[in-house]
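Batch job 17 of 40 flagged for manual review because the log was empty.
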Amino acid sequence: MLKAVTGKGFQVLLAGVLTLSLAACGSTGAGGAVSTGAKKESTASNYPTKPIVFVAPSGAGGAFDKAARSVIKIMAEEKFVNQNMTVEVKPGGGGTVFMTDYAVNDTKNNYKFFVNSPSMLINNLKKDGGIPYSYKDTTPLAQLFRDYGIVAVAANSKYSDLKTLFNDLKADPTKLTLAGGTGPGTVDHLTFIYPASKYGIDPKKIKYVSYDGKAQSMTALLGGNADILASTAAEVGEFLESGKIKVLAVNSPKRLSGVFKDVPTMKELGIDADFNIWRGVFGAKEMSADAKKFWDENLKKLSESDKWKKEMAANGWEADYKDSANFSKALDEQNKIIQDLLKVLEMGK
């Protein structure tokens, strides 16, 4: 037979029941505050919560524009990002106009990102036309892929191998004209200067003529206005395939496939001068930890996606993913190489 509990005994029993109820719902935190399941869930990140912009700091249809559109296309198709993503083209000063604005006005912007290449390092290190901002004023998020520098001549050129060409330049660096689609001291110029200087050619005496884009520099080569072309594999494949040019060497760790399968690498020729022409994604310098975590995870997923691999193959890009930490380390290393090259050319700060 149950005995009724009254008075003080009932109060003790009620207090015990309440204690057990609270323990079941949550735990007691510092200062006696109760942490419940609902409270814990409310602190979880829900980033992103609004539209995202990827900036291509170059002209419409250029390499950065193409890369940025490919990134958002695959990320949307794979449902890695549930917000609307757009690409904005911001040409001007080879990327310097955008970079200056971004480094000053978007230091904490979790919703604006951009694609870039070694040109952003060069723009900071050049004496003339350089800017005080670099990758150190951003958060490098990932290197997605890379292209490779090539040395080419016209199909009717007397040169059929790089060493013969380099030997002639070593004897007289002013003998031949080199064309590139970027300005002096920038990517096309440096991808040729680096192996040439390693070979013992005086880089300051090489006659470099810059054109407004890679298409124009190719036209100069085919039209006889230049003897040598410095460009990238992705830009010259169709001309090699059609027999209009000869590619004497490619600056890749191993031979490329397809139309480049018979082209030797610089390393095969005894020239160790790797110049990484990467394409990477950058965010704001002071982006939040949850935004950084989100992009770390999802850019890695992108790199592993079969759709992304097909997109890279369709564009002639070589997969070379580096996460944020390894990308930052690679940037530090290349920054030193570029600094030294510009100093030799008397173009550095």
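Reviewer: the log was empty due to a logging misconfiguration, but the result itself is present. Confidence is low (pLDDT under 50) at residues 1-43. Unflagging and moving on to job 18.
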